[in-house]
């Protein structure tokens, strides 16, 4: 509407300052020299040469020194919501739950209130995530609350996109043009869970070391959510354009407040180039005998895939699948496993349909926030437990970052013991921790662990304090490059399957599977777990039951609820899963997962160890069949849940 007349002149508020990032470089004779110079720069706030900004956008805006817009702080009355307890990966609920008035704000304010004052007032925080539905709204809400709580600046990945591992890297490594570093981050993700208006959303806070908040902090957050009666927000702060790179400056009661929208991929790619031998990987990818496929499952990995694999490493763009990030992950389930990564599984020759097309030599996928990974060879699946063991066994020779040796290795308790055997053979420190990456982080901060992993498709190292899907893909490419460094012109390359088979011949094989029963009745799940604990009071009775089910299965020699005492800070984590350990090294583990948004997820982990090299080539389902039968009948899973089959088998 255009007003033609008015009794008073219109008042036009001052526009917020928008400072476009500007990179100043000397005149260079060749574009490749410019490329190398830019990659030698520190982690500073600058628009990368491959960013989509136009030339006009790269120029500083006229009037950039104009007065910044002034905002005010409002105290909003609120009441607590039930159930805002952060799990191992933050708070996850349906989008419709987060969309309730005050719901997100309550949790964010409870987090600010749980942090030391110096990590809020005058601090720099990161706010971004995997781009799932509701992320853009959430970024604006959190930004306005950060301003009201005295935060000095907020860093946002372009289009709100930052992978969880990239957030960890940015907290640890990025230094802005003004010298600021982040003290923490709100990560907006529900990881591998589906996205969309009726699906899942999540939020978690990472600390200054780049890792998830420890239980001491998440307990404070939860306590605060139960008593909160008000939160602070700068309601009159305008939404920031998160699609355009640059710094927007405002002024509030406590002084200036900046929102810095920066390129999502540049910092992370620089870190990867400092870890891996990119030239060696490029030679592998350039070999006509080697083919490659990466599936981003329409998650945030797509913001990195082309820049990393195509622009940096020279892979063909046709090798990328589903690498356009989408709010609903293209209607799919962004979980990199054999069930949900269907297109990749088919392309790698592991699907049910037959094809005359020869599969690639190497395939990989990442989940919604790119912290998980799946690795495949041609018609060959690598279990996550084997993957971390193989990376650890080959890291020193294959990855420059580890050339001086590994400080130690660690796995989550449900993960198979394949890593244990490697650690024993290589005389490495070894740790078994509860599920949750924060436990690895403590060990890494203390210089006790270099490589770690979990059976739920999470693998990583001490370069950051999160699991890292793309890092794991690069680690495997590095191992393949090393194994083939003198063979690229030969008749046949060393394959993923060759590497795994050789590993089994050296260390033995841990046959392994996981049964997931998702969204079961929470009370029924608790009763099932309580019964399994009760059974542990008499191992003789347990073994009698097992012999009636499968007489050839070994005896249970010990059983417990896993409890972990952190060797760094002495903290104790109880009730971390129910274990039945057999005399031949086999294991059954039962655990309730904290990563779902509704109901409960029961996970059953079944592991059979075989060190006879003549028996390591059996079909996994055949080798595990007796223990699977024992697990299902011992737990009475169908009786308690009404489920005749699991939701997912990995």
Characteristics:
single chain, 650 residues, alpha/beta, nine-stranded mixed sheet, six-stranded antiparallel sheet, 28 strands, 21% strand, disordered N terminus
Descriptive notes:
It is a single chain. With 650 residues, this protein is of the alpha/beta class. It is built from 20 helices and 28 strands. The strands form 6 sheets. Strands 1, 2, 4, 5, 6, 7, 8, 10 and 11 form a 9-stranded mixed beta sheet that branches. A 6-stranded antiparallel beta sheet has the order 22-25-26-27-21-28. A 5-stranded mixed beta sheet has the order 13-12-14-15-16. α5 (135-148) links the parallel β5 and β6. α4 crosses α5 (135-148) and α18 (539-549) crosses α19. It is globular and about 75 Å long.
What's the layout of helices and strands?
Elements: E1 17-19, H1 31-40, H2 55-58, E2 69-70, E3 74-77, E4 91-94, H3 95-98, H4 103-114, E5 124-129, H5 135-148, E6 153-157, H6 164-173, E7 184-188, E8 200-206, H7 215-225, E9 230-233, E10 246-252, E11 255-262, H8 266-275, H9 278-286, E12 292-295, H10 302-312, E13 320-321, H11 342-347, E14 362-366, E15 373-377, E16 380-382, H12 384-398, E17 409-412, H13 418-426, E18 430-433, H14 437-445, E19 451-454, E20 458-461, H15 469-483, H16 496-507, E21 509-520, H17 522-535, H18 539-549, E22 556-561, E23 564-565, E24 572-573, E25 578-582, E26 587-593, E27 600-610, H19 620-635, H20 637-641, E28 648-649
Parallel strand pairs: 2-10, 5-6, 5-7, 6-11, 12-13, 12-14, 17-18, 17-19
Antiparallel strand pairs: 1-10, 3-9, 4-8, 7-8, 10-11, 14-15, 15-16, 19-20, 21-27, 21-28, 22-25, 23-24, 25-26, 26-27
Helix pairs in contact: 4-5, 4-7, 9-15, 12-13, 12-15, 18-19
